[in-house]
Write a structure and sequence with these properties.
Distance between the termini: 13 Å
Strand content: 15-25%
Oligomer: single chain
Number of strands: 13
Number of helices: 14
Strand order of the largest sheet: 3-2-1-4-5-6-7
Helix content: 25-40%
Order of helices and strands: EHEEHHEHEHEHEHEHEHEHEHEEHHH
Structural class: alpha/beta
Length: 403
Amino acid sequence: MKKIVHINSVNFGSTGKIMLQIHDVCKERNYSSYVSYPKSRDNLNKKCDDAIIIGNRYLRNLHIWLAKFTGFNGYFSCVSTLLFLKKIKKISPDIIHLHNLHNCYINLPLLFKYVKKKNVAVVWTLHDCWAFTGQCPHFTLAKCDKWKTGCHDCQSYREYPESYVDRTKVMWKLKKKWFTGVKDITIVTPSQWLADLVKESFLKECTVKVINNGIDLSIFQPTESDFRKKYGIPQNKKILLGVAFGWGIRKGLDVFIELANRLDNNEYQIVLVGTDDGVDQQIPKNIISIHRTQNQTELAEIYTAADLFVNPTREDTYPTVNMESIACGTPVLTFRTGGSPECIDEFSGSVVECDDIDSLLCEIKRICEQIPYSREFCVDRAKAFDMNERFNEYIALYEALIC
């Protein structure tokens, strides 16, 4: 029986969901599949079959603090990692599928030493750029390209994963040493944009394959509701929707505030989902703020009720929210940043240059007045987002590596 071990920092959220869904498909195909993640309060909220827990909360917290004070992220958790690798050795997997390795839960040199020594085939799905930088998972906002030749003098070292000292120069060299030289490794990226970046990094010798993320089209589909009635939005008023989890400048909160001040309140209603009390204090009163939805079906109802989904993201690899909106029949307008434009074709949305608010406003008015993108065209585009098809691409990759 073919054996796969998946490793990720979490078993929830977007990356955790992707790992678990691939794990389920593996079991359906009669693979012996295991999921691995650190012991934490959030991870323990979800029970997972065939789970291998890495370390304990005390050692994890120690790693986090040591990384903050030294700048060496992924350099500790030696005991936890050795015990984990002992379990992996007994399993003797055909493939180790890596996801997010950042945020201090596994010893990176020990993990990659094991992989190189055992010549285990590796699939590494990159959900951000952290694997080839000295520290940061994103660098678009910082307009930084030091990662191409060697990080140093980092302006973002106090951001996630937080450090009190700038150790990016050393960490870039260490990560290059750890992550290169694996005999059989395939880097998977969710967007061509990220794949192109990998080919400019120290991982450029690795095989790189693009497998787009997918969504559940049985949930995200046109779903009628009484959303307008519930929030008192007249039929003649166009709903501009934004959905994010962790609103801020990266997700374009300031752009929505600008739009709220410049658009006619009698013609347009902005709705933001995924907000919190802090966001509510920043936004004007004419924006409807929804902290969270009860479930994904309710979210699908909101997508369906909207006339246009606006995504002024400044850093994203391949936004799930774009796919969800299009699948519900609502076109997308986004900035030309990261992999965000790749979700859209000529029949399902439009793209403007990043931070060009005037062009964004013009496109909002054009789309809402002319209605150039039909619900039918959007739903047709969404066929490309079927998660089952995307996960089958992973199975095909596994089969190619094991043969």
